[in-house]
Amino acid sequence: MNTIAPPAVPRWKTALNMIINPGEVVKNQMTKVPWPYSLMVSGLSFTLFFLQTGLDMMRTGQTGVPTVILMTMLGLLYGTAGIALLAVMVWALSQAAERGLTMEWAISTFALGYSATFVYALSGLIFSLAFGWKTAVAFGVTGVLWALRPTMYTIKQMSGERVAFSIAMTTLCGAILLIGWALLGRFGG
Predict the structure, then answer these.
(1) Share of the chain above pLDDT 70, in %
(2) Between helices 35-59 and 83-93, what is the axis angle to 10°?
(3) Distance in angstroms (rounded) separating the CA atoms of residues 26 and 8
(4) Is the CB of residue 127 less than 8 Å from the CB of residue 142?
(5) How far apart are CA 27 and CA 44, in angstroms?
(6) 3-state secondary structure of 133
(7) Contact 109, 38 (CB under 8 A)
(8) Which candidate, 116, 134, 7, places its Cα nearest to that of 61?
(9) What burial class does residue 126 get, using C-beta atoms within 10 Å of its C-beta: 0-12 exposed, 13-18 middle, 19+ buried?
(10) Choice between 84 and 3, residue whose per-residue pLDDT is larger
(11) Tell me: the pLDDT tens digits for 36-66?
């Protein structure tokens, strides 16, 4: 009997689907997405977001080019190591291992949730460079907020559908990310 395997969904489509339908991606597609790919998405997202922040600060005379470069590198670190640490923390607190979800799955799913952040950060950088606009808050923060929906679906899956826990942890994760961004922005200024 010949069976034809369904075609594999390209990773970039999975990333875009994470924006549109995160619940379906979290439940059915994340086992096929390697964590390094997902961390690349979140890493680039926060790199561009922090670059926008540095450019905004440079436009207002608060900082110079070396600090913009430093903030950009901090964004890369924040979007890779920071997101991975956040994912591991939530994975442990949600007792996801008891549900057969690995730490690698948690990191990959958490990080790919920042696909919308990447789209917003890239758009913001384009507007920043083309028109000289200050875009970190309008585009960067909005992108992080858009990532909260996939984050909630991920936490819900990890916690065994515990809604109150998922909402509380999603709120905590969003707060940690935005407060961290604000503190790092003060460092640059």
Answers:
(1) 95
(2) 130
(3) 16
(4) no
(5) 24
(6) coil
(7) yes
(8) 134
(9) middle
(10) 84
(11) 999 999 999 999 999 999 999 999 999 999 9
